[in-house]
């Protein structure tokens, strides 16, 4: 039917997809990534500015993938992701600056990050409760108000510097740590998505009433989604604080949440691969356009609007890169394809 | 002992009585039809049974367990599944996932096991997936398993909705206008199909329908609703000649 | 007593500005079920138009107000045509993100042209009358009166005119209205013009009351006005007015009795409580679930 060069080209792509779906490929990517990060960290052959950008890329990936769980997979519209980030950033920073002994900083750093994530998860649990009854725009307001409340509370606590902010963190966020936490968040969220609970999350997006009637415990699903999402936002916050070594409440305001939203919808909803792409492209583009000064901030939203008009679902909306589909799902999908093809051949 | 027993069920929407003093009982393995003109309160009865609405008054007992006040997913897990008047599949999800989601209550692993893909996760996923695929092949939908539900033709969507309901392992199946939008030929097929489902899955069935041919053809008993109240109940032959039914319903719309 | 009266007056002033902006959110939502997140920034543009007209054209208050409103209304219609219209059938969230993008564009574009905050010249002589401990400024009264007049005009348009009827019809059922011979596009443009025009008017008044303006002034005020619209029941015009006055009152009262830094915390916490008690806002009606 189609000519041979065409089929060989698509066969090549198919092979590439199959390759990226294998465990070996994933292992190679992971090892290469971690080796690169450790090498950069030890031998310092990449200049510091570039290192910092790579660190931001990782942090933004965590933020984007975790927000996609709520906004993309569950179909809600959370506008307060920076609020969870703030909780993580402040808790982790208080621990490293005021609680942990100065000589054990490196050792205890992961604990601080983890504690930040857990605190954010606890807050995420509280935000999940109104989501039982409220949906759509009204839930958006709840998350918006939540973000603003976090910021205002932080501004009113003198112990963490109030509006002036908190400093004194050592630069503990290194590239290997960022890689570790990024990989962990991607892995865990992928695991969640391709599980019973993840299917529950998707079914809430599609039709919440039908989902409940098909035995899905929607409250449980919402709590899991919010807790996991805010946990990783908190992790990202802790890493951010120890990369910049200075935080203040204004860094976590609505503009920050907007940034994360843009990365999510740029990459495309309900796609882990898309979220990673969105975060990478947005972060790097902002750096490349830096010479334009303020005009880059004019250009970026303009590009976003054009993207939405010509590709309303983002770069990879509702599609997934094979690498992030678990092997099992991948094999079953291949089986259906074969069956379908056989059926098609038989009827032809 | 009846499988489902409804007593003095009443439901009001902002003062309007959608269902009033509705009494009903169904024995295991029966097939009962509920008919009535538009707006008679039939779907509301289904919504009350499945917990979408909370009854204003009355009781609904399923295997001696009170259902009023339970959340829909708990009611579904106790063994009641339903389909919808206007199909409500998870449109953007695959056919397989539509059925797998209905297994939600039967999964044995915890959220922690799911997040880390450890413990019972793999075995359970395998079990659920093969169960779902088996169910799909019984319904001749297995070739479509990877397709998005919205891409299925209308008839197959209806079939998938029934398969999805059965995946929750119900004892009682509620079908809300299964023949909507079908031609007489398809309705005859559907009649056989419903009978076959009842045998194969040994379920009790209540169905709401407008198509007289379907209801009269397969239901063992029929309840007629009008303005939220039962106006007649009995065997199909009795209903056909019941003066109040003729007046309220059949007199207007007797053609199949 | 005089203190409370004084604060009530301040609350009315702030509330009427919130209400005017909230109206724009609610009108657009009612007709397109879309949250126009650029609306707060159109409010900001209104204040900047006021500045430009007052400084370069030296016009007096009334023409300045009218021209600013017209300018913002025009901008609103243009934005709808070029950014939102292509997305009318796209997923709802794409339109929201586009609106966020348009808002960021307006902020940063204004910032690029005007990196420093601007000071709006005094357009009106401001007389202050003192009655004991109570002080009344003519500006304050003007802002309250003018907002009320604008709201009354809007209410009249929506409730009594043919265009208003078409607007209400579209928000009721978008598919059936074209069958009645109404041009949906025209009505949507009109809605945007009126809604954003009111936002522009709010910008001018805000600029008169608090004359230092900057490109980011619309963010916080805009989000707060959006909250007012939701509190009142989004899509409901009278609800938006009520929501505006409630938030104005809450903010002024909190600032009057607590350190002013607590204003936002209390205001937003009250909002959360209200939404938990009445999830669909004060005048909003819960969407009936159809099963």
Word description of this protein:
The complex is a heterotrimer of chains A (348), B (256) and C (291). Chain A is an all-alpha fold. Chain A has helices at 4-20, 23-43, 48-73, 81-99, 105-128, 136-156, 175-193, 196-206, 208-213, 218-244, 254-267, 272-288, 295-310, 327-347, and strands at residues 166-167, 246-247. Chain A has a two-stranded antiparallel sheet with strand order 1-2. By secondary structure, chain B is an alpha/beta fold. Chain B has a six-stranded mixed beta sheet with strand order 6-7-8-3-9-10, with helices on both faces. In chain B, strands 2-1-4-5 form a four-stranded antiparallel beta sheet, covered by helices on one side. The two termini of chain B are 35 Å apart. The model of chain B has no long low-confidence stretch (mean pLDDT 90). Chain C has 291 residues and is mainly alpha-helical. Chain C has one domain (2-277): ABC transporter involved in vitamin B12 uptake, BtuC (Orthogonal Bundle). The chains are: A mainly alpha (348), B alpha/beta (256), C mainly alpha (291).
Protein topology:
The complex is a heterotrimer of chains A (348), B (256) and C (291).
Chain A: H1 4-20, H2 23-43, H3 48-73, H4 81-99, H5 105-128, H6 136-156, E1 166-167, H7 175-193, H8 196-206, H9 208-213, H10 218-244, E2 246-247, H11 254-267, H12 272-288, H13 295-310, H14 327-347
Antiparallel strand pairs in A: 1-2
Helix pairs in contact in A: 2-7, 3-7, 3-10, 3-11, 3-12, 4-5, 4-6, 4-10, 5-10, 7-10, 8-10, 11-12
Chain B: E1 4-13, E2 16-26, E3 31-35, H1 42-49, E4 57-62, E5 65-66, H2 72-77, E6 80-82, H3 95-101, H4 111-116, H5 121-138, H6 154-166, E7 172-176, H7 184-200, E8 204-208, H8 212-218, E9 221-226, E10 229-234, H9 236-241, H10 243-250
Parallel strand pairs in B: 3-8, 3-9, 6-7, 7-8
Antiparallel strand pairs in B: 1-2, 1-4, 4-5, 9-10
Helix pairs in contact in B: 3-6, 7-8
Chain C: H1 2-32, H2 39-57, H3 61-84, H4 92-113, E1 118-119, E2 128-131, E3 134-137, H5 138-160, H6 162-172, H7 184-209, E4 212-213, H8 217-232, H9 237-257, H10 263-277
Antiparallel strand pairs in C: 1-4, 2-3
Helix pairs in contact in C: 1-5, 1-6, 1-7, 1-8, 1-9, 2-3, 2-4, 2-7, 2-8, 3-7, 5-6, 5-7, 6-7, 8-9, 9-10
């Amino acid at each position: 039917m189609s000519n041979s060069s065409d089929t060989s080209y698509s066969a090549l792509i198919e092979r590439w997809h199959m390759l990226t779906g294998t465990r070996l490929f994933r292992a190679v990517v992971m090892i290469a990534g971690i080796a690169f990060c450790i090498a950069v960290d030890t031998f310092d052959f990449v200049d510091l500015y570039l290192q910092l950008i790579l660190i931001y890329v990782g942090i933004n990936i965590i933020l984007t993938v975790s927000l996609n769980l709520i906004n993309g997979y569950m179909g809600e519209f959370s506008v307060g992701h920076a609020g969870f980030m703030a909780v993580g950033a402040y808790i982790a920073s208080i621990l490293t600056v005021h609680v942990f002994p100065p000589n054990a900083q490196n050792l205890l750093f992961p604990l601080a990050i983890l504690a930040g994530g857990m605190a954010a998860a606890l807050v995420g649990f509280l935000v999940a409760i109104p989501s039982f009854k409220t949906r759509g725009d009204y839930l958006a307001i709840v998350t918006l108000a939540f973000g603003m409340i976090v910021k205002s509370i932080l501004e009113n606590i003198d112990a963490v510097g109030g509006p002036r902010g908190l400093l004194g963190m050592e630069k503990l966020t290194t590239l290997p740590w960022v890689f570790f936490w990024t990989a962990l968040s991607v892995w865990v969220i992928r695991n969640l998505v391709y599980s019973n609970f993840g299917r529950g999350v998707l079914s809430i997006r599609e039709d919440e009433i039908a989902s409940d009637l098909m035995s899905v415990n929607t409250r449980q699903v919402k709590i899991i989604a919010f807790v996991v999402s805010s946990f990783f936002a908190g992790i990202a916050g802790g890493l951010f604080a120890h990369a910049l070594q200075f935080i203040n409440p204004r860094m976590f305001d609505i503009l920050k949440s907007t940034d994360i939203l843009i990365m999510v919808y740029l990459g495309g909803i309900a796609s882990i691969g898309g979220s990673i792409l969105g975060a990478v492209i947005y972060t790097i583009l902002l750096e490349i356009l830096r010479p334009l000064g303020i005009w880059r901030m004019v250009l970026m939203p303009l590009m976003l609007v054009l993207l939405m008009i010509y590709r309303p679902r983002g770069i990879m909306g509702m599609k997934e890169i094979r690498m992030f589909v678990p092997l099992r799902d991948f094999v079953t999908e291949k089986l259906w394809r074969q069956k379908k093809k056989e059926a098609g051949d038989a009827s032809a | 002992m009846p499988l489902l027993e409804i007593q003095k069920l009443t439901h009001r929407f902002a003062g309007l009585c959608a269902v009033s003093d509705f009494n009903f009982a169904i024995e295991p393995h029966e097939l009962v039809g509920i008919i009535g003109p538009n707006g008679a309160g039939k779907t509301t009865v289904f919504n009350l049974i499945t917990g979408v609405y909370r009854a204003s008054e009355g009781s609904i007992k399923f295997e001696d367990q009170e259902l009023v006040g339970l959340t829909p997913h708990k009611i579904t897990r106790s063994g009641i599944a339903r389909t919808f008047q206007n199909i409500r599949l998870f449109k953007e999800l695959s056919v397989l996932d539509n059925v797998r989601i209905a297994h939600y209550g039967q999964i044995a692993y915890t959220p922690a096991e799911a997040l880390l893909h450890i413990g019972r996760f793999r075995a359970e996923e395998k079990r659920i997936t093969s169960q779902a695929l088996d169910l799909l092949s019984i319904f001749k939908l297995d070739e479509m398993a990877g397709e998005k539900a919205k891409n299925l033709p209308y008839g197959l969507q209806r079939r998938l909705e029934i398969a999805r309901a059965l995946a929750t392992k119900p004892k009682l199946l509620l079908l809300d206008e299964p023949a909507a939008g079908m031609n007489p030929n398809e309705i005859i097929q559907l009649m056989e199909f419903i009978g076959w489902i009842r045998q194969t899955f040994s379920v009790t069935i209540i169905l709401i329908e407008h198509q007289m041919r379907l209801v009269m053809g397969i239901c063992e008993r029929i309840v007629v609703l009008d303005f939220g109240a039962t106006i007649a109940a009995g065997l199909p032959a009795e209903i056909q000649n019941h003066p109040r039914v003729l007046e309220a319903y059949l007199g207007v719309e007797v053609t199949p | 007593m005089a203190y409370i009266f004084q604060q009530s007056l301040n609350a009315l002033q702030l509330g009427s500005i919130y209400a005017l902006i909230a109206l724009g959110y609610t009108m657009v939502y009612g007709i397109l079920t879309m949250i126009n997140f650029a609306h707060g920034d159109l409010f900001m543009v209104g204040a900047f138009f006021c500045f430009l007209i007052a400084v370069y054209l030296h016009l007096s208050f009334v023409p300045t107000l009218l021209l600013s409103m017209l300018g913002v209304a025009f901008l609103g219609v243009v934005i709808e045509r070029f950014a939102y219209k292509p997305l009318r059938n796209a997923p709802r969230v794409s339109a929201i993100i586009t609106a966020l993008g348009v808002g960021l564009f307006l902020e940063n574009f204004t910032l690029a042209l005007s990196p420093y905050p601007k000071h709006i010249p005094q357009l009106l002589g401001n007389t202050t009358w003192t009655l004991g401990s109570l002080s009344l400024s003519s500006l304050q009264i003007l802002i309250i009166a003018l907002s009320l007049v604008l709201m009354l005009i809007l209410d009249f348009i929506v409730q009594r005119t043919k265009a208003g009827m078409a607007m209400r019809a579209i928000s009721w059922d978008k598919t059936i209205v074209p069958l009645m011979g109404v041009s949906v596009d025209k009505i949507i443009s009109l809605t945007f013009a009126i809604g954003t025009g009111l936002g522009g008017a709010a910008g001018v008044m805000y600029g008169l009351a608090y004359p230092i303006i900057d490109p980011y002034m619309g963010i916080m005020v805009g989000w707060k006005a959006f909250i007012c619209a939701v509190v009142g029941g989004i899509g409901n015009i009278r609800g938006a007015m009520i929501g505006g006055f409630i938030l104005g009152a809450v903010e002024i009262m909190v600032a009057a009795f607590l350190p002013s830094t607590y204003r936002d915390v209390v205001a937003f916490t009250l909002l959360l409580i209200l939404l938990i008690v009445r999830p669909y806002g004060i005048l909003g009606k819960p969407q009936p679930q159809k099963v």
